[in-house]
């Protein structure tokens, strides 16, 4: 069973093209810094919406933004509001909006945050945002160095009531972290999927459910690439977030890898997978209790963030805990953790966070590592096109990242990140990130500067890294450039 949505997306977009006008149903799909602007207004208490999922829908948020005034706002939220209002004013113009995007880099970017780095050493993209009535679409045609072509980040969506049905792919980031997510990030190419999501983050109106507060839900079923050990692996992705009281957001995520070429794709096997039933997959069909396993590869966990007002500024504390396997159906054994804190200093957002994907595979205090993002059946692991779907640091990695994000009066943005990363300390079964050695320590300084010039949005960045191996030390550097023209 092979899902091929490309032809359907292209056909539908072409049919509706004459009737569409410019719009986007989600915040920051063209400029990810808009999501950070939204996050800033929420942390300062000016907006009420969930923000620990990217992207979130504009519906319900745009009216809040329109009603806000910059009067008496501190510098940072004022800049965020001005940027969001500027984008909304453009969005309301009655003309189509297309983009030409160019990017180039001196080398492949190794570590990526939500909006740091590029995904190719050379790439050109033609992108159009479209909207009419309940229909919306984004057509993105990408030409990469070497002749590769794809339509990543293209979709067709239909809104009905408080729900949105989408076919296609968009970049996603699940969790409160700034540098990476343990379960789903835009570290890899986006997944082609059929998605059912809320089209608004507004709180329930029913008095029995109003305590949930602002909430968001998405459920998606898609297919991974053919060039893997199990070609055409199916993937089910689910996320729920809610904001029951001011400053606190709770999220839960669950991903299932199932089926694929050579694997059982019957309805019965799917039901077994989503109900976490223990099955025997041995060729003989006979298993002892200890040989039973769960159908598919499950990855799940939770995240939470809390923003308090300290010293007249918001201070946010956040964690994410993601596990892969369970010993008794509910007790997760292989857990990776992420912790972070962020605040604002003189209008600059600063953060420090750490994560560790060195997990003990048997749930005991042993050194039996090399299992996170790995699976005995799906031996390509929790990856697509050679990069992890979750953490940009992949498996068996311990890291600490300190960052600073700057906003300027002219709409410009700058960011600096300092990463200290320990990769595969035991030297066994290295992840795809390791190409020169079986283990490595990396100290990397990266950053970018982004500036709007009329219809252009220009961005220049780079990094310099000291790489320590068992017998030598080397220094790597790269620069990259991105240009986006709206017309």
Automatic annotation (TrEMBL):
Per UniProt, the keywords (alphabetical) are: Signal
Does Signal show up as a keyword for this record?
yes
Q: Which residues form the signal peptide?
A: 1-23
Q: Which is an annotated Pfam family here?
A: Caps_assemb_Wzi
**This protein's name:** Outer membrane protein in capsule/EPS biosynthesis locus
Species this chain originates from: Agaribacter marinus
């Amino acid at each position: 069973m092979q899902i091929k949505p490309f032809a359907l997306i292209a056909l539908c977009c072409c049919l509706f093209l004459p009737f569409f006008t410019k719009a986007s149903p989600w915040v920051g799909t063209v400029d990810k810094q808009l999501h950070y602007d939204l996050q800033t207004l929420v942390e300062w208490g000016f907006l009420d919406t969930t923000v620990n999922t990217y992207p979130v829908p504009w519906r319900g948020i745009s009216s809040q933004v329109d009603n806000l005034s910059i009067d008496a706002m501190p510098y940072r939220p004022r800049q965020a509001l001005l940027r969001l209002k500027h984008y909304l004013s453009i969005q309301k113009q009655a003309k189509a909006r297309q983009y030409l995007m160019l990017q180039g880099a001196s080398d492949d970017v190794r570590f990526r945050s939500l909006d740091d780095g590029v995904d190719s050493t050379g790439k050109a993209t033609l992108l159009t945002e479209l909207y009419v009535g309940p229909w919306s679409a984004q057509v993105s045609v990408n030409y990469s160095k070497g002749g590769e072509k794809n339509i990543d980040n293209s979709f067709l969506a239909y809104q009905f009531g408080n729900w949105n049905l989408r076919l296609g792919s968009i970049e996603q980031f699940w969790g409160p972290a700034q540098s990476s997510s343990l379960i789903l990030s835009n570290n890899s190419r986006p997944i082609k999927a059929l998605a059912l999501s809320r089209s608004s983050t507004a709180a329930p109106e029913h008095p029995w459910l109003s305590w949930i507060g602002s909430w968001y839900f998405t459920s998606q079923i898609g297919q991974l690439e053919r060039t893997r050990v199990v070609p055409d692996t199916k993937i089910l992705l689910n996320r729920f977030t809610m904001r029951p009281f001011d400053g606190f957001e709770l999220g839960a995520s669950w991903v299932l890898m199932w089926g694929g070429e050579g694997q059982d794709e019957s309805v019965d096997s799917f039901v077994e997978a989503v109900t976490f039933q223990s099955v025997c997959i041995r060729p003989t069909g006979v298993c002892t209790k200890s040989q039973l396993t769960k159908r598919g590869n499950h990855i799940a966990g939770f995240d939470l963030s809390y923003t308090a007002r300290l010293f007249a500024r918001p201070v946010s504390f956040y964690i994410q805990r993601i596990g892969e396997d369970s010993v008794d159906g509910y007790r997760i054994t292989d857990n990776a953790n992420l912790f972070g804190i962020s605040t604002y200093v003189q209008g600059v957002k600063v953060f420090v966070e750490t994560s560790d994907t060195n997990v003990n595979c048997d749930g005991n205090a042993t050194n039996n590592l090399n299992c996170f993002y790995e699976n005995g059946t799906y031996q390509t692991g929790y990856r697509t096109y050679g990069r992890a779907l979750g953490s940009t640091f992949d498996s068996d990695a311990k890291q600490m990242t300190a960052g600073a994000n700057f906003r300027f009066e002219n709409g410009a943005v700058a960011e600096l990140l300092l990463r200290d990363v320990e990769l595969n300390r035991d030297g066994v079964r290295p992840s795809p990130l390791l190409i020169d050695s079986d283990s490595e320590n990396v100290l990397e300084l990266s950053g970018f500067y982004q500036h709007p010039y009329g219809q252009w949005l220009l961005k220049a960045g780079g990094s310099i890294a000291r790489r320590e191996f068992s017998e030598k030390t080397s220094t790597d550097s790269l620069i990259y450039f991105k240009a986006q023209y709206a017309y």
